[in-house]
Input
Amino acid sequence: MARITASVFTSHVPAIGAAMDMGKTQEAYWAPLFKGYDFSRQWMKDNKPDVIFLVYNDHATAFSLDCIPTFAIGTGAEYQPADEGWGPRPVPKVQGHPELASHIAQSVIQQDFDLTIVNKMDVDHGLTVPLSLMCGEQDPKSGSWPCPVIPFAVNVVQYPVPSGQRCFNIGRAIRKAIESYDEDINVHIWGTGGMSHQLQGARAGLINQDWDNKFLDLLIENPNGLAKMPHIDYVREAGSEGIELVMWLIARGAMSDVDGPAPLPKVAHRFYHVPASNTAVGHLILENQ
Output
């Protein structure tokens, strides 16, 4: 059967992608951030998955404000990098895994979660920046990402957005779906977005380092308790865009310790850095034991 062996959590700041695309990763401002992913890139080579299930939020690219699904799973064979106003990022197209994605959709919907099934869409920086951080620069013409990717888009842009508990529970449903897939494959589940940041208003530029690191502690040690945190705490403590962190609870809910006798996952890597643009960057790699 398929199995989830690890979860990856990372911010997906668009300026990180721009720094990579423009060759600025060794500049004084950016070098400390990218150094924090040196371990991760080697880890990806040593622990290459067969499929990545990547949780992210679309930034009004695939879904306009005319139609906003709460949870949308990509079931297509491939996805092109989106043009977000300054041309597509110079990265390879993303290969999908329609068979596993369709199986997950069937299973999760039968567990009473409503999913929007998307057979065709472009993917923006929310998905491509995490791939670049973990896999390094790729030639868009001759290169490719290490494995197929199943995009899972969550609405954290237009209220109402799903609760942390709802996200945690759907992560548990996704784990059951993957484990029931009748093929021996290794799956990673990634939660992306965050950490604390606010892009507008009187608190624009807000970063709360203490709260961010406490969130990381709880994500590792007490995800069931963390899932109960109300929206207002995210907004008050982490800024209006800090709500993206509920997506990390989907990936954490898919880990084996949540519903069984398994021990807490092993922390393979933990990294935190400020600032990247006007955002705090958090990163974790957890391995099932």
Observations:
- The beta strands are 3-10, 51-56, 71-74, 78-79, 94-95, 116-118, 149-154, 186-192, 266-276, 279-287.
